[in-house]
Amino acid sequence: MKILEKGPGWSSKQKCTGYGNGGGGCESLLQVEAGDVYVTSNTDYLGDTDYYYTFKCPVCGRETDIPEKDLPSAIKKEAMENKIKILTRERNCLDY
Ligand SMILES: [Zn+2]
Q1: Is 12 helix (H, G, I), strand (E, B) or coil?
Q2: From the CA of 78, how far away is ligand 1's center (Å)?
Q3: Which domain holds residue 53?
Q4: What's the confidence (pLDDT) of residue 58?
Q5: Ligand 1 centre from 94 Cα, in Å?
Q6: 40-75, pLDDT tens digit by residue?
Q7: Is residue 2 part of a domain?
Q8: Secondary-structure breakdown of the chain: helix, strand, coil percentages, each rounded to the nearest 5
Q9: Distance 56 CA to ligand 1 centre (A)
Q10: In which element (H, E) is residue 15 found?
Q11: Cα 58 to ligand 1 centre (Å)
């Protein structure tokens, strides 16, 4: 099929807060698009891995987690399948 004009697709207004990543975001309001979302993971001491949907602020470079409820399942699936960037990092339990 030929795409004549691509639709706007999903995007969401998100604030750079550093949520889930130690805080300290610059409070910029950003229009996050599907390609901006990538998956990060954290494995706890029991060996359970949790996945988070994250974007990186172009202003200050901090990462912020997007609440899952703000993401359509298609976007989550795409982020998971593409595994654009899987980062393992230490999380501070106090974040949650
Ligand atoms: Zn920022």
Answers
A1: strand
A2: 24
A3: 11-94
A4: 96
A5: 21
A6: 888 889 988 888 999 999 999 999 999 988 999 988
A7: no
A8: 20, 30, 50
A9: 8
A10: strand 11-15
A11: 7
